[in-house]
Design goal:
Keywords: Hydrolase, Metal-binding, Metalloprotease, Protease, Signal, Zinc. The protein is mainly alpha-helical. The protein is built from twelve helices and three strands, in the order αααβββααααααααα. Strands 1-3-2 form a three-stranded mixed β-sheet. The longest helix has 19 residues. The N terminus is likely disordered.
Length: 268
């Protein structure tokens, strides 16, 4: 009982201190990130109506292309959990959705709508690096820590969370929005991850630039939200690229030789 009370006191103090200092708190362990990601993967696989996944055997070209892109990003020394997370990748067949997301533990999902919308391979690499950053910086479970409160924190910290509780948390991940700070952090890390890659390190900026030009910045998914403002996001991404001195030369024009367009053409 004394040990439990000490844990409770510690958690309350951490929560209060973190809130007062405006610092993100994450009571989940890295292994619990992986557990939640695996739970979400199972739920997505069992819901083909909402998440119609493309078969890897039927669309090998698209999967090979995206897996190569994933591996190129994960080669970055800036990716903290590249050897700890599984970094599985699936393509969701939904041409109407401009989205991608990466669940805790590195479970990556990319919509065909996003792939077909983007003209440059660097822009897709930027979005993928942004999503990998959300998992690598553990933004989802940090947000979940805030959402579910002290009771859940105690259960998780003491390894007493039930399967139902973990399932509840995993289910909430699909509707979880990121904070302004998390979005800015993911944008910045996308540049960090791409700086040593073959892709333009400011690739994510090109995506937002196209959205702005076409007036599609309202009513978009959470990771495309207008907070921070898309114009500001473009500026911040380019500022980070300048700060790092990394290449902003498009791989599409310098080395892709039409492979990206050819890959897109294989999609249903």
């Amino acid at each position: 009982m004394t040990k439990f009370r000490n844990l409770l006191t510690l958690l309350v103090l951490v929560a209060v201190f973190g809130s007062a200092c405006d610092r993100p708190i994450n009571i989940f362990t890295v292994d619990q990130d992986k557990q939640l990601g695996a739970q979400l993967e199972a739920e997505i696989a069992n819901d083909p109506t909402q998440y119609p996944l493309l078969s890897e055997t039927q669309y090998p070209t698209a999967y090979a292309y995206l897996l190569d892109m994933r591996d190129e990003i994960l080669k970055s020394p800036e990716v903290k959990y590249k050897d700890k997370f599984d970094w599985k990748l699936k393509i969701i067949h939904d041409d109407a959705t401009l989205n991608a997301f990466c669940a805790p533990g590195g479970y990556i999902y990319v919509y065909t709508g996003l792939m077909k919308y983007l003209d440059e391979v660097d822009h897709l690499a930027g979005v993928l690096a942004h999503e990998i950053a959300h998992a690598d910086q553990r933004h989802s479970t940090a947000s979940m820590t805030e959402k579910y409160g002290i009771d859940m924190l105690i259960a998780i910290a003491s390894n007493n969370a039930t399967a139902a509780q973990l399932s509840q948390v995993a289910g909430g991940l699909t509707e979880l929005g990121f904070s302004r700070a998390h979005e800015t952090d993911a944008d910045e890390h996308s540049v960090d991850y791409l700086q040593s890659s073959k892709y333009a390190c400011n690739g994510a900026a090109g995506f937002f630039t196209k959205l702005i030009a076409q007036g599609q910045t309202s009513g978009t998914p959470a990771f495309l939200s207008t907070h921070p403002n898309p114009d500001n996001r473009v500026a911040k991404i380019n500022e980070r690229a300048t700060e790092l001195g990394c290449s902003t030369t498009s791989f599409h024009s310098s080395g892709d030789n039409g492979a990206y367009a050819a890959m897109i053409a294989t999609l249903p």
